[in-house]
Design a protein that fits this description.
binds S-adenosylmethionine, two-stranded antiparallel sheet, seven-stranded mixed sheet, Rossmann fold
Length: about 400
């Protein structure tokens, strides 16, 4: 651990102009304010399980010689109080995990969280250190970089993204979460009002911010929006401060987001909440058909236009463009091995919660295929699994299980 340094000693240049204010802010309000608990974190989040991410983005996983866990190198850049780091450890057995943040206050909480959850016992190595993501040259390269809710708090987010791009292994994936301004205008108004009122960014601001929502008339649109949409999320003081008192934040629309990605020489390889960007969520019949005839990027523009509640973007980036494997050729799918997605609840049964905790009812034959896969030697071809299923039914079930993300084929 390297947590005793003052922000001014956090490594050599380059530094972001916002770092002193932002690190002091998170020292006061370590984020997220999730309570500490003993034992593993609840449930799962597939975005922090690298096998699940790679399978979702690439359409398959590399084989595991000898059946040992894949030894991913993972960076949690701007780990805050360590909620994501904790999942990254528990969902990636055998990985090497590095978590960095500029705030010693946030890292104190992260260290305690990781100690109480026994996170280090699940991975090959775990390093938590006070360091800017701009200053990671000595950490080597990573197969997976998670940076959630961080870059939009830099004065120059593009320099932050370029620095992360340099830390990415050639076939690595980067997961980002950035604010979307479409669904944040009410928040921006409250921030602006608190600015007029000179509320500041510390305890006084918190007290005044909470009173603002009490004072506004019950039918005031900003108050109603806060109560309906954000009150629960901001129940913890540090979460309230993060939303309404932040000294440094930027937000994006799709055009500016894709310009940022392009400027950093990276490639977009999918949202990590793809259902949000599906026009079928908003349209039906003829209008849906028209929407689906548009190029994908325009479908997203349409969704952004029609859904003013979208308040963030979460997505994956890579160094090279990725075309996900489709498994349309029968012989290739039958010759492939596969793994069951670990991000499932209720296994083994036909009533499951899927990777997004969505209820899934699979058929007994689907369950039998997944169980045969688990019991088979590593990499055994789907076509050779000892099952009383002819090849056509095997293919049908395998494709359905791939679409549900329960089955992750192995790419040779
Ligand atoms: C909103 S919090 C997000 C924490 C965590 N990623 C999560 O979502 O649970 C933003 C975090 O980014 C950290 N941060 C901001 N700028 C940073 C930088 N240049 N390098 C590393 N961490 C930074 C802050 O200290 C803060 O803990």
């Amino acid at each position: 651990m390297d947590q005793d340094k003052a922000p001014s000693e956090l490594g050599q240049a380059p530094r972001d102009a916002a770092t002193p204010a932002v690190s002091a802010f998170y020292d006061r309000f370590p984020y997220p304010g999730d309570p500490l608990q003993d034992g593993p974190p609840p449930g799962y989040n597939w975005r922090w399980c690298v096998d699940s991410v790679v399978a979702a983005v690439r359409g398959g996983l590399p084989p595991r010689p000898g059946g040992t866990p894949r030894s991913w190198r993972i960076l949690d850049a701007g780990c805050g109080t360590g909620v994501s780091t904790d999942y990254l450890c528990h969902l990636n057995p055998g990985a090497d995990v590095v978590a960095v943040d500029i705030s010693s206050g946030a890292l104190d909480v992260a260290t305690e969280r990781l100690r109480r959850s026994g996170a280090a016992g699940h991975v090959h190595s775990l390093e938590v250190k006070q360091c800017s993501l701009l200053n990671l040259e000595e950490t080597g390269r990573f197969d997976y970089i998670n940076s959630v809710g961080v870059l939009h708090h830099l004065d120059r987010p593009e320099l932050g993204l370029q620095a992360l791009a340099q830390r990415l292994a050639p076939k690595g994936l980067l997961h980002l979460f950035l604010y979307a301004d479409g669904g944040r205008w009410e928040i921006h108004r409250i921030q602006k009002a608190l600015g007029f009122l000179q509320a500041g960014t510390s305890g006084e601001g918190l007290r005044l911010g909470r009173s603002l929502f009490n004072d506004l008339p019950a039918n005031n649109r900003l108050r109603r929006h806060h109560e309906n949409r954000w009150a629960l999320d901001t129940a913890a003081d540090s979460n309230f401060a993060d939303m309404y008192l932040h000294p440094q934040e930027t937000s994006y629309d799709l055009n500016r987001l894709f310009a940022l990605v392009q400027q950093c020489g990276l490639h977009f390889c999918g949202f990590s909440n793809p259902a949000q960007w599906d026009p079928a969520r908003l349209l039906q019949g003829e209008l849906l058909e028209r929407a689906q005839a548009l190029p994908e990027r325009q479908q997203w523009d349409l969704v952004e236009t029609l859904d003013p509640d979208i308040s963030h973007f979460e997505f994956f980036l890579s160094q090279e463009p990725i075309t996900p494997r489709q498994w349309s050729k029968d012989e290739e799918l039958l010759a492939a091995g596969g793994e069951r997605n670990r991000c499932l609840w209720g296994w083994p049964s036909t009533a499951l919660l899927g990777p997004d905790l969505e209820p899934l009812d699979i058929e007994p034959g689907d369950l039998a295929l997944l169980q045969a896969l688990e019991g088979a030697p590593e990499g055994m071809a789907l076509g050779s699994l000892p099952l009383a299923l002819d090849q056509q039914e095997r293919l049908l079930r395998a494709r359905r299980l791939i679409a549900l993300r329960l089955l992750q084929p192995l790419v040779r």
